[in-house]
Amino acid sequence: MTNFLFLAPDEFLLGKRLSQLKQAIGDLEMASLNIAELDGARSDASDILYHAGALPFLADRRLIIVREYFSNLESRLGTAKSPNRAAQDEARQILEALADPGLSNDLVFIDDKLDKRRAIWRGLDGLAGLDRLSKDGLLVIEELGTPNPRALPAWIANTARQDGIDIAGQAVQMLATYVGADLRRLTLELDKLRSYAAGRSITPDDVQRLVSDTSDALIWDLTDAIGQRDGRKAMRALYALRRNDASPFYLLTMITRQYRIMIKVKDETSRGPGNEYDIAGRVGESPFPVKKAMAQSRNYGLPQLEGILDRLLSSDFAMKTGADPNTEIDILVAELTQSR
To answer: Are residues 85 and 205 in the same domain?
Structure first.
């Protein structure tokens, strides 16, 4: 028997981990008969331990998956000044059970977030909490959170290595930039790139060719050119987007989004310094577009950015009231790249 606690799980990582545990039960056709999934908000310790003690059917063990049990129990325990006695009794019951190596089935707890200062984690009335159970080898705690932007390239490189995919370091960085922390899509893109490369190392050109049409990167090429007042470069970026079937309404929406980010970044950096990760956390955006916006916004004053936003809104109105959308985008880009 093994007890697991998966914390702050990314949906894709959690799915892979649960799939591994289900496959370990044995025959897939019989696995469903030996898997129980419980809602932690509706289940108490007695429910969980009932399933944990049930005999497996034509298998060595059962798998019991319990979602959000500890976080719900934690909230029920209350404070030290007003403890919930029933919840404390239940906490003692589940902690005692987890400390018993005699359980014959696998228990998996899935919780988004737990307070490591609370009794469930630290212990209760002399009973070992989750932290001690982990250190004693009675509970396997795994952090399955989505990698942060700094760690994402390492995750991509490690995933590629595990799957036998040869990919250049620069291509890894580009893939992280284009796709972001969508791990399911990153895995699919790696498979697609492996098929395309057909045994050779995946290059940045491969990523550019196969992945860039679904990223924001070309939009940033366009806003880069607009910020530099480079009309020729802006038009090349615009035509590249059109070759990728970007509709004029999509283009206007994305250009507007980038300028809104620039306004937020410009305003926030005026309040205090910071790198792209600091500013991203303060404005609620991802670090990559924030880094781009920090560089681009230096070309503008805040009143200019607000004026451009007004111009974008007028283009939106024109396109929705009869103006030719492609012509309107051409005029807009030409106006925004004029010297000021």
So the answer is: no
The predicted-structure confidence for 37-88, as pLDDT tens digits, reads as follows: 999 889 898 999 888 888 888 777 889 999 999 998 888 886 555 667 888 8
With tokens 């190392």, the residue in question is 201
213, 244, 263 - which closes a domain: 213
| Domain limits for position 41 | 3-143
Give the contacts of 336 (CB within 8 A, at least 6 positions apart): 226, 234, 308, 311
Number of domains comprising the chain: 3
- Name the nearest CA neighbour of 34 among 62, 9, 73, 6: 62
Measuring CA to CA, which residue among 18, 56, 19 is closest to residue 34?
A: 56
C-alpha span between 141 and 306 (Å, rounded)? 49
Domain boundary among 184, 213, 242: 213
**Six-digit token pair at 39?**
């809602």
Task: Show the tokens assigned to 224.
Answer: 């880069």
* 315/323 Cα distance (integer angstroms): 9
Sign of CA dihedral 144, 149, 150, 156: positive
What is each CA distance from 165 to 16, 18, 177, 197, 332, in whole angstroms?
Answer: 19, 24, 19, 10, 43
Q: Which long-range contacts (CB under 8 A, 24 or more apart) does 93-96 make?
A: 93/45, 93/46, 93/49, 94/45, 94/48, 94/49, 95/120, 95/123, 95/124, 95/127, 95/128, 95/129, 95/133, 96/127
pTM: 0.61
Residue 157 has pLDDT above 80, yes or no: yes
Q: Are residues 167 and 115 in the same domain?
A: no
